[in-house]
Specification:
Rossmann fold; 2 domains; 6-stranded mixed sheet; 31% helix; elongated
Length: 339
């Protein structure tokens, strides 16, 4: 298989499984790179039924015109975090399903899709381990001030003044106990932390004490956010809630940027009202503008939205996304349906 700008693969001649809904004019367009080896993608394509043409692109589109050209005649689209708004979707009259190779799907115009009978699916489980491990990494980096220690070692300094804290014995506050939040709880328990949590829907999970959100913010030494971005969760971690945090507490956000009032978070850090923050997600996708307040705040550990980005996770993501495509081609309903 060859990667190309407008590479098409006709699977009519391949020995593939039968399908209930695929026809000889079914087109699947993978609108952007999926970050996996060519052989892994080809293995998934080999599982698709006869009569399917797949187009794959090795670059992201740079404007809507280019995006429309890639998508306009497709029945199925595959994207990661590429925005698909109504201004693009209205040029896709054959479109019936969008497979989002991502946990979040707030970059898809769901209202338009619902109105036009377009199903949308996501990949909810692929990054559980990757994101949970990043939470622990950011937590340790803040509690042990890894950046300052690295600078000291490279500058012929000693450890003087760099004694910091452990996770053991601290209270971990988890906002949202879905798959990733629960995995973070498991890892934090291994480190010896007490776990408190808030969830929109009450739950009963062994080892986790569920509290009102205000109390989680007041009690936790480490607060980590694991809710999706919706109109209801915009600035869920508000200026008021940030004001409830302990002076020695740190905040970790690997979920979605708009869930946290980032301007208020930067103010709290600049004023020394909280001890630090580890942020992997922002109000917009990196690269960040030079005036983003988080770039200029002290005691901040930033990563450019890499929580999901491990070789292992991207392999799982590929399989989940094409599982949704295979289910759609079988009976018209993707496995992980979100709209």
């Amino acid at each position: 298989m060859r990667w190309g700008w407008n590479m098409a693969i006709d699977l009519n001649d391949a020995d593939n499984a039968a399908s209930d809904t695929a026809t000889s004019d079914t087109v699947i367009s993978i609108l952007e790179p999926l970050g996996v080896p060519e052989a892994a993608l080809q293995a998934e394509l080999d599982t698709l039924p006869k009569g399917v043409t797949v187009r794959s692109y090795d670059t992201r589109p740079t404007n809507d015109d280019e995006l429309i050209e890639r998508a306009k005649d497709a029945e199925a689209l595959v994207v990661t975090n590429l925005p698909l708004r109504s201004s693009v979707l209205e040029h896709c009259p054959k479109l019936r399903t969008i497979a989002v190779a991502f946990v979040g799907f707030d970059h898809i115009d769901l209202d338009y899709c619902r109105e036009h009978g377009i199903t949308v699916s996501n990949c909810p489980g692929y990054s559980n381990e990757a994101v949970a491990e990043l939470v622990m990494l950011l937590t340790l980096a803040l509690l042990r001030e890894v950046k300052a220690n690295d600078i000291a070692a490279r500058s012929a300094q000693t450890s003087e003044g760099l004694r910091r804290n452990e996770i053991a014995g601290k209270t971990f506050g988890i906002i949202g106990t879905g798959n990733i939040g629960r995995r973070v709880a498991e890892l934090a328990q291994v480190f010896g932390a007490r776990i408190v949590a808030w969830n929109r829907t009450p739950r009963d999970i062994e080892g986790i004490e569920f509290l009102p959100l205000d109390d989680v913010m007041r009690q936790a030494d480490i607060i980590t956010v694991h809710v999706s971005s919706t109109p209801q969760t915009a600035h869920l971690v508000s200026r008021q809630l940030i004001g409830l945090m302990k002076p020695n507490a740190v905040l970790i956000n690997t979920a979605r940027g708009p869930v946290v009032d980032n301007a208020a978070l930067a103010e709290a850090l600049n004023a020394g009202r909280i001890a630090g923050a580890g942020i992997d997600v922002f109000d917009e996708e990196p690269p960040l503008p030079a005036d983003d307040p988080l770039l200029h705040s002290p005691h901040m550990m930033l990563t450019p939205h890499i929580g999901y980005a491990t070789d292992e996770a991207l392999g799982k993501r590929l399989h989940e996304a094409f599982g949704n495509i295979r289910a759609y081609l079988h009976d018209g309903t993707p496995t992980n349906l979100v709209a």
